[in-house]
Protein: Adenylyl-sulfate kinase
Organism: Gossypium australe
Amino acid sequence: MSTMGNSTNIFWQESPVGKLERQKLLNQKGCVVWITGLSGSGKSTLACSLSRELHTRGKLSYILDGDNVRHGLNKDLGFKAEDRTENIRRVGEVAKLFADAGLICIASLISPYRKDRDACRAMFS
Ligand SMILES: Nc1ncnc2c1ncn2[C@@H]1O[C@H](COP(=O)(O)OS(=O)(=O)O)[C@@H](OP(=O)(O)O)[C@H]1O
Ligand SMILES: Nc1ncnc2c1ncn2[C@@H]1O[C@H](COP(=O)(O)OP(=O)(O)O)[C@@H](O)[C@H]1O
């Protein structure tokens, strides 16, 4: 049992199908490719080219683009430093789930702050 927020009864629920089994089914290993850069620097273009090329090679990928994610999951966030931090944290958590599912997750966000990039990278170690 662990304490999460105000709850003291949150248990980790194991999946009946393991990560290795998913990898075998998809014939690929899940991972995250995180593309950073200033607005207009070519992140989305690169993400789209990579996703198309992977698809051509029979590999399942999915793009988490900053512009798109801010239409839904992160529509409550703006561009203050703390909002950008939360944006990166949430996308990092979603990317981790995609990678665990076996997909090649391509995250394309400005990610301007080193501390946020480092915190995100630490989620995967
Ligand atoms: N300051 C400010 N004001 C208004 N709009 C802005 C601002 N900063 C970014 N943008 C736009 O938001 C798009 C997504 O940004 P990100 O989520 O990648 O930014 S961040 O990683 O949270 O810093 C981003 O997309 P890209 O241009 O593709 O980078 C911009 O269209
Ligand atoms: N390698 C490149 N050379 C020249 N122009 C590019 C290149 N990559 C992207 N662009 C152009 O730059 C603009 C911004 O690209 P975009 O991928 O939307 O950037 P971002 O996602 O970082 O905001 C688009 O008009 C795109 O066609």
